[in-house]
Predict the structure.
Amino acid sequence: MVAQQVEPQVYTPYRVSVEQYVTFREQGFLVVPGLIPPEDIQRFNTHVDNLLAGRETIPGIVSPPIDLPPEEKLKHWQRAHMLHRVLPLHEFFLLHPRTLDVLEALIGPDVLALQSMLFFKQPGQIGQGYHQDSYYIPTQPDTLCGAWVALDPATEENGCLWMTVGSQHEPIYPDDDGASPNGDRILGDIQPIRNASNTDETLNALTPVARKYAGREVSAEVQPGDVIFFGGHIIHRSHSNRSKTQSRRSFVGHYCNARSFVPWNHGMPYEGDSANDQHILARGSTHLPYAQPRFGTPCAANQPERYGARPAPKKPQSMMPARNGLLIITPHADEPHDEKGVM
């Protein structure tokens, strides 16, 4: 079955509250309940069911054979990356207006969409050990933010996310496993680690860092349609799905401020000093290159009049002293210029 184009819809804009904004910075993550409408979640779950049953295919990825026993089909999938580049529905979810409304407030107003992931996490499948997302997806300056959309109920039993509150203030620890040069090496006393993401706490060298915040690791149990937003520095993990029957499926997008350089293209080559031109401008504007959504999902890249830059002051402004001695914002006066641009 071939994936169909997603028809544009109108959504009620989501307004982030001051309390939510503060929570995101104090806790390192924010849960927004019911952000994605139930009908969108159902449509995506139908798509996932079709993938698991072999009724729908992904370009470039081998699907399980139709005659494979159901239990074996479930084992065929664990996760899939960057499907927004090949499937319209994944592009739509990466650029979902309600998700972008929140990101615009948390890391915007200029937002670049970088990565999409689909986690299946069937019963018995393993989780992921302590890690920091900005190690894997570097942005300069670092403005990375994940948006974790629950497709199933996520509980402690079936492997929900666990967030280490307070660790969002930690630097990105370089992993001396030889796989990547990423991480903050400019700090004089930072100690490189090994085995980030390893589920074995005795091998994962981020464990001692996480234990600095003993008692502050919290489970993020959520329902379908809830979205967890979390910064790239917070240490987080998930455990194995211990349920016998309940999957823990989720769609995850990663984003950054569109004015950050992004030297990352999911292992694929790019030209120049950044891969910004491979990623989609979702909201706002930028002085850097960006990509258009392949399947035409509405966003700032293709509808700048709707999702683009906010109106700027028509005249330049400066902080100037008022008569009472206090500094105020003052528009520049209209001054005559000669033809060479000299006053």
